[in-house]
Design a protein that fits this description.
The chain is α/β, with parallel strands linked by helices and about 100 residues long. The protein has one domain: Alpha-Beta Complex (Conserved hypothetical protein from pyrococcus furiosus pfu- 392566-001, ParB domain). The chain is about 30% helix and about 25% strand. It is built from three helices and five strands, in the order ββαββαβα. It has a five-stranded mixed beta sheet. α1 packs across α2. It is globular and about 35 Å long.
């Protein structure tokens, strides 16, 4: 798989992705399903992934969006991020301090 870090891509090949083991359960996704049925998967809300050595892409951020898109059978918008880079959660936490 040939991908550039920072490029937004789209696919319905869900087997490329794996949930990171440290993430919580995706929980209720009905609200996202309703929105995605209406608007589709908006690229500006892509999921962030880290390329793993096993050929899979580990979801760093966006597990609920991934689960909702998969349930609907629509393409997932995603971006491979630098594994050493900041996450959105870290940036949001720093803004609160």
């Amino acid at each position: 798989m040939n991908m550039k870090v920072g490029e937004i891509l789209s696919t319905d090949e869900y087997d490329l992705f794996e949930l990171a083991p440290f993430h919580r359960d995706v929980g209720k996704i009905n609200d996202l399903i309703v929105l995605m049925k209406q608007y589709g998967y908006l690229p500006e809300y892509h999921i962030n992934l880290e390329a793993m050595g096993n050929g899979k892409l580990s979801i760093r951020e966006g597990q609920r969006r991934f689960a909702a898109a998969k349930k609907l059978g629509i393409n997932v918008c995603y971006m491979v991020v630098d594994p050493g880079g900041l996450s959105i959660a870290e940036i949001e936490t720093s803004r609160k301090n």
